[in-house]
Amino acid sequence: MLKQYHSIPSPNIEDENKAKPFSLIMTDRVRRNLVFDRWRNFMFGRKELGPGMVLFKNYLTHMGQVDIVNICQKWAMGPGGFYRPSNRSGAKLRLHMMCFGRLWDPVTKYEKSYRSDGSAPPPLPYEFISLAENAIEDAQLHMKLLPSMLPDICVANFYSYGDRLGLHQDCDEHVGGLDRGLPVVSVSIGESAEFLYGHTRDENKLEKVLLESGDVLIFGGKSRRIFHGVRRILPPLDYIGLSQVVKETGLISGRLNLTLKQFQF
Ligand SMILES: O=C(O)CCC(=O)C(=O)O
Ligand SMILES: [Fe+2]
């Protein structure tokens, strides 16, 4: 039989309030959500390190990390692959580097499309793009003012033990994007790094955070121009201490970092 919905009187607010049940005890659904939130924070802890700066612990799944190592390895040894860049004074940096999507170099910045050996960077893998987009969307859930960013470059660094990266700002991208605070997305795989950051060049005033395998760090908004650097790579305690990703991919000892950014604006 058809119900005569049109004849149901619209509830008035007062009646609705009176009808609301009041319970002293948590419903199962609320309890489940609370437990899930705690578990999620424990597993995928979110640490706000500053305005527009957030660290997602354990953000990448094991398979996600393995995929990234394999994608990088596919290009690592070919043209446009890893090399040790020099700085303006001609000294070699204490890391290996390669670019995806477009070329960046500590001396020529974004000016050139080809390296001195004539090689061009491989295309930016869509897996890297969607990783950056997802991480930014997750950050925006808590940081409403964080702008979106569509990466067009990824700088991949590989640090062996003893390697490091001096204090610097990532500020060679288009000034419009820098001023808008378009975020940088930084992905860590392999051994852990001591990462220094802050709004000053004074090393004594910098903050320190440990970046571990699977962590994703975002810095945008008011933190887009922070000074940052990698002070050291921590050695694993023993072979047992090597991460599963290192064991599975055969990644040499050290740390792989992806820095995803938007140059064009
Ligand atoms: O390895 C890192 O965590 C930082 C890399 C970085 O800052 C860069 O490549 O500009
Ligand atoms: Fe940087």
UniProtKB/TrEMBL annotation:
One of its GO terms (molecular function) is ferrous iron binding. It comes from the Eukaryota. SUPFAM superfamilies: Clavaminate synthase-like. Gene3D superfamilies: Alpha-ketoglutarate-dependent dioxygenase AlkB-like (2.60.120.590). Its cofactor is Fe(2+). This is DNA oxidative demethylase. It comes from Helianthus annuus. Fe cation binds at residues 168, 170, 228.
